[in-house]
Amino acid sequence: MTRRNWAALAAGAIFLAACGGSGEGDGPAIKPFTPNEPFSPNPYPSTYEAFPNAPVLITHATILDGEGAKIEDGSLLLQNGKISAIGKDLQAPEGATVIDAAGRWVTPGIIDNHSHLGAYPSPSVSAHQDGNEVSGPVTSEVWVEHGVWPQDPGFGRALAGGVTSLQILPGSANLFGGRGVTLKNVPARTVQGMKFPNAPYTLKMACGENPKRVYGYGNGSFPGGAPFSRMGNMAGYRAAWIKAAEYKRKWDKYSAEGGEMPARDLELDTLAGVLAGEILVHMHCYRADEMAQIMDMSKEFGYKVTSFHHAVESYKIADKLADYGACSSMWADWWGFKMEAYDGIPENIPMVANAGACTIVHSDSDIGIQRLNQEAAKAWADGKRVGIDIPIETAWEWLSLNPAKSLGIADRTGSLKPGKMADVVIWSGNPFSVYTKADQVYIDGALMYDRNDAAFRPVRDFELGQPGEGDMK
Amino acid sequence: MIRKLMAGVAIAAVAAMGASAETYVLEGKKVWTGTGAGMIENGVVVIRDGVIAAVGPSTTPKPEGATVISAEWVTPGLISAFSRTGIIEVDAEDSTNDAVAAMSGFSASLDASDGFNPDDTAVDVSRLGGVTRVAVAPQPSTNLFAGQGFIADTSGAQDTDIKSDAFTFITLGEGGAGLAGGSRPAAWAQLRAAFEDARAYPTRYIAGGEGDVLSRRDAEALAPAARGRQLILIDARSASDLNAVMDLAESNRNLKFAILGADEGWRVADRLAKMKIPVIVDGFSNLPSSFSQLAATQENAARLSKAGVPVAIVNLDDSTHLARLMTQIAGNAVANGMDWDEAMKALTITPAAIYGLSGYGILAPGAHADVVAWDGDPLEVTTNADAVFIDGEQQDMTSRQTALRDRYLSLDKKDRPYAYVKP
């Protein structure tokens, strides 16, 4: 139960509707919450650049384009790091590697919008618990990227499962856990070398049992402190938003009129960024009634929740979530490990999709992230048994396009639309089968993983010189 | 085609409800027997009086008046070789968690079956996943000795068939080190002393003496295991911990061992095979989650199996609520090199053999009629169980989860609140 215990703690929009953009350039730059800030909104910028690769033409594959289309005997051309063309019988350009993928399937890379890799890395020893700044209920001043260890072997396992981008979130101990970070799943010496260029920042918030347990019952004292109850949770969020609104007013005034520069506050920088619509809110929330409270609160303060995470009761209010426009990031079948997970059902994902609400399959697990395709497949099949018949090519949106939307990167990745990043997986067969493996994984057109070639199976520093180094994992 | 068959199953299920000791004919496009009969294409399984009366090809005589159920696949009911189903309702709520007893003065004598509640919702969920028996272990609390494990069926009936004292559960490795005071030497000192206490029972205690580690009751409970009359299930992960367990086994040839975890088992597979020690693994373990799992790989189950080690596959990530995911894990073991037949055995025959459950985990005349009809390959993630039989009785296929699902399946209730929808 180690993992589940972490889930209990660690687990706990501005929907950049940019999907369908031109795919040119690197997308929108990270913006300041107010136009004339005298400080950088992006002081730890990405240093990631796509790795070189000859053009790749994949032929005779069953292709899911990630936007609802399935192409039999299809071709896909990756060139200069981008999806260059998709269709049938494409011609290989000069110098291209041609891969005959007959019998195999091709999809956009999987994007997990809920991971703690690097922040709760393997090995899970005491020195590695960097995912929750438990020191207070409001820690929007912390940025998870400052706690992400790029040598976590879990990143490599996720790559072998076809994950090409992922969001690392702080844990759910706090009401406001801090900023999340979106990464390309490439090995690097620094976290900056993994950061998805110009992805918007995100904010992790948490509902329910975790914050009130950690703080209300914390440190062995009773009562520990606020929040002690769900009432206290709501009061804690609202008090913080009131401070953030005031802070933002001061900065807006300063931007417009000049005068004495307001004092800077890291905690409120992040919250003001949310109120300005530049930082996306990802909120751990299990229960339907709590999600409804949060949606009202977001209207009270003028922001939007991009995605509710875990959301095991989304099926009860899928209509309301669709109306509001929040995604649900869900497991296929986790349930019962705590009271707020007690009403989890295996049909949650298809029932949310069936109501027309944004549907995402997430992992929150270094094990689950390795086969999110199977998690989607289970949910898809459970839906079919109750008459929710969704084509696989549509269901794949739960794994790539919808999570990309929730991270504000859908204009650049998440589907096989020409011009987008060539983040692509070649599967050994139908990825909704348990027997299928990711054969090759391309990130920005570069081969980063090849199941059949040890030269393209990365080994993180931690595993060098250890038993099992370089083994098929 | 499949849907048509599924509809057929549903009708048959309704007709059969409430009738016990009925005769059933299960027709499967594939019938996996787990015996020398192998896989039978278009096979038939006849269930009568709680046992399997016949297994054979489509020409097998079908008794008059039998309820006929057609399915894609028919297999023996699955046996979870390690779970906490039925002793935990909600893990995080202590009042509903009977697996662990941190404040108890007892250890080896804690009998997990005293905590079994057939009404636990995870029992139904496991059954709906095709799991018909579960081996349930207590969680270690105050020392290495977690207590007594049991085997139960998943009928959810108040008269659930329970085999108590099926094994004693001991945690070694990193976990054991922590429980024993902080190191592996402390764990082994505690283990050796406790075995001496148990072997000295009752003599030492009658004489008014005390055990070095175990109280009188705990010594009494550990005595059968310490004397080779009860299975000892040991949690151990690293190659060195596994070797240490095998050293213990070598110097105590009369004791019966099985190992839980064995993440690095493939590194010592030949020795495990030679010593005929079965292992219960979670095939998903492939991360260096601790320094005891550095060489963990998803090929562990396949490598152990190929070396001749008896392998059972379980879900250790959530052994309470999702014991049923053992099918997905076994399917992944196949994707990582395990023979499909061996993977099925890891969910049926091997757990039965580990716990000495004769006549379980197979489809053969005279065997207990724990049988599952599936809508596809049971190891496939898109497959579900259509019908489940335990001791020849067709089981209810509803759970609290299906009730919640059916209440909210259609979100168009306008005339009354959803609380009035009672599926």
Write the topology of this structure:
The complex is a heterodimer of chains A (473) and B (423).
Chain A: H1 2-11, E1 56-64, E2 70-79, E3 82-87, E4 97-100, E5 105-108, E6 110-115, H2 153-160, E7 163-168, E8 176-184, E9 202-206, H3 209-216, H4 230-257, H5 266-275, E10 280-285, H6 288-301, E11 305-310, H7 318-324, E12 327-330, H8 348-354, E13 359-361, H9 372-385, H10 392-395, H11 401-406, E14 424-427, E15 438-443, E16 446-450
Parallel strand pairs in A: 1-4, 1-5, 6-7, 9-10, 10-11, 11-12, 12-13
Antiparallel strand pairs in A: 1-2, 2-3, 5-14, 7-8, 8-9, 14-15, 15-16
Helix pairs in contact in A: 4-5, 8-9
Chain B: H1 2-16, E1 24-32, E2 39-48, E3 51-56, E4 67-76, E5 78-83, H2 121-128, E6 131-136, E7 145-153, E8 162-171, H3 173-180, H4 184-199, H5 203-206, H6 216-226, E9 231-236, H7 239-251, E10 256-261, H8 269-274, E11 279-281, H9 300-306, E12 311-313, H10 326-335, H11 340-345, H12 349-354, E13 371-374, E14 385-390, E15 393-394, H13 400-408
Description of the molecule:
The complex is a heterodimer of chains A (473) and B (423). In chain A, 25% of the residues lie in helices and 20% in strands. Chain A is an alpha/beta fold and 473 residues long. Chain A has one domain: TIM Barrel (Alpha-Beta Barrel), CATH 3.20.20. In chain A, helix 2 links the parallel strand 6 and strand 7. In chain A, helix 4 crosses helix 5 and helix 8 crosses helix 9. The longest helix of chain A is centred in the middle third of the chain and has 28 residues. The two termini of chain A are 22 Å apart. The N terminus of chain A is likely disordered. Chain B has two domains: 110 residues, Urease, subunit C, domain 1, CATH 2.30.40; 275 residues, Alpha-Beta Barrel (TIM Barrel). Chain B is 28% helix and 23% strand. Chain B has an eight-stranded mixed sheet. In chain B, helix 3 crosses helix 4 and helix 4 packs across helix 6. The interface between A and B is large, with 59 and 52 residues.
